[in-house]
């Protein structure tokens, strides 16, 4: 896999190009901080920004986008913006309304990707129908899901008219999600990792540190490179400009097959976040 910059993209199943690495803004609830983080990321070369209605920072993200476009001369079309419909808004009509509310807060005319945030039982199929309608109407460039297990995808695909382009899930070396990854890829669905660094939980891991020293990179950079080389899109979260720049600096080296296997072998099926089969929100 030849990757040389933050602008390198993966082609989704609907032929839309999506950057391999972007900025996540989960738990960045202050709009001013969210705006500054987005501006720092885009100025550092990032083009993918991932938010969600429940993060309560779409307004700040939108402000950051507006300001950085004015400052850099980039166009909206240069960016790839993702948001997600929250569980309480799932259902057909409510999803369409929620999408418009997200657009209004972001100050945008369209999204590049809109996701179902969690597989709410009894609702996600109607929600998907709403996303399909918005997609067919040209209001969204791509649609996908988040936190879906294999059985959720199987159920959705039974009568879906549009195949999700992405399944965004918790994924890191302690939770490699190999069966889900294989199933998703077999159906043309690209895996995208949230919490790709396991909230820093592997920065002192002996294997990761050894590989980092070999490549003269940080443990975070090693883990992010592992994801990308394994064909997984990543959205590490940070509000610090130095860390945002560091996280994006993963395109000037390559992990060997042995490195990749050693990191993958760290899997323990360990979650840091909720279980998609057992959540109550």
UniProtKB/TrEMBL annotation:
The keyword Oxidoreductase is annotated on this UniProt entry: yes
Organism for this UniProt entry: Sporolactobacillus laevolacticus DSM 442
TM ranges: none
PANTHER family xrefs: 2,5-DIKETO-D-GLUCONIC ACID REDUCTASE (PTHR43827), NADP-DEPENDENT OXIDOREDUCTASE DOMAIN-CONTAINING PROTEIN (PTHR43827:SF3)
Site (Lowers pKa of active site Tyr): 84
Protein name listed in UniProt: Glyoxal reductase
Keywords, in A-Z order: NADP, Oxidoreductase
Annotated catalytic residues: 55 (proton donor)
Binding site for substrate: 117
Boundaries of every NADP-dependent oxidoreductase domain copy: 30-267
Recorded family membership: Belongs to the aldo/keto reductase family.
An annotated Gene Ontology molecular function: oxidoreductase activity, acting on the CH-OH group of donors, NAD or NADP as acceptor
Keyword NADP: yes
InterPro entries: AKR (IPR020471), AKR5G (IPR044500), Aldo/ket_reductase_CS (IPR018170), NAD(P)_OxRdtase_dom_sf (IPR036812), NADP_OxRdtase_dom (IPR023210)
Pfam families assigned: Aldo_ket_red
